[in-house]
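Posting this for the archive.
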Amino acid sequence: MRPLVSRKAGVIQWMILGLVGSAVCLASPAMAACTEEGEDNCIDWEKGVAYAVGTGAPAPWLKDPGQKNISARRAAKLDAARNLLELIKGTQVSSSTTLENRMASSDSVRVSVEGRLQNLRVVGKEKYFSDGTIQVRVAASLREVVPADALMDNTPPAAWKDPSRVKGDVDTSQTYTGLVIDARGLELIPAMSPRVVDPSGQEVYSAAFVTREYAVNQGVVGYAKKLEKATASERVKGNPLVIKAKASTGQTRTDLVLEAADADALRRLAQTQNFMRECRVIFLLD
């Protein structure tokens, strides 16, 4: 439904970014099609980019066609920003926490997220309607919008058990450039800060194990749909270790469970190699 903008409401709309947006059509949490030319509000988890559509009506008190056009475009961008905020607020940071939860519990996170939505990139073609209404589509990188404080878990991980006796197929004598975990067929839900655990639930990889700088620059994990694309990614390319996850877990199925031998092998590798500390990790999804 196209918005009806009064003079007073319009001025307020253009001066501040409200927290309550118009209805948002969330994309499937799986790797659904999400492109610059689409119309749905959605997240491309492979690229780590969120998209949202906004519609704006021209200010009724303006007479000049050019000024009316500018006012409608500005209103559309702000509507899109509100929709984008509602979209990313609903995403999982971890299996038990959404970004909305983190924003509610931390004023600094809330202010940071809202502030980063002020200058969104317009993508695709603008749509013009006979009544002067304009529709735009905006995009934002999740890494740029979501602050590190929302991703990082301040709870230190439990001490790892002794990984000195590793059995399994992982060659721990090699030097790896990254890690690809095959989660196909496990109904894994993408998240911004997921965990990898062993069969007992003890963490093998999470935000608690990474260097903050790398989490900020590229996120805790990446996502891909094809193994060839994952292994060729700049994030892990060279000699990535590829292992198969045993199951997905967590309240919203955002975390992965590894076989015990694979978990122990990763712990041993982490003692001498940096690929996990540097967030060189990709989850492979259907």
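The radius of gyration is 22 Å. Residues 1-31 have pLDDT under 50 and may be disordered.
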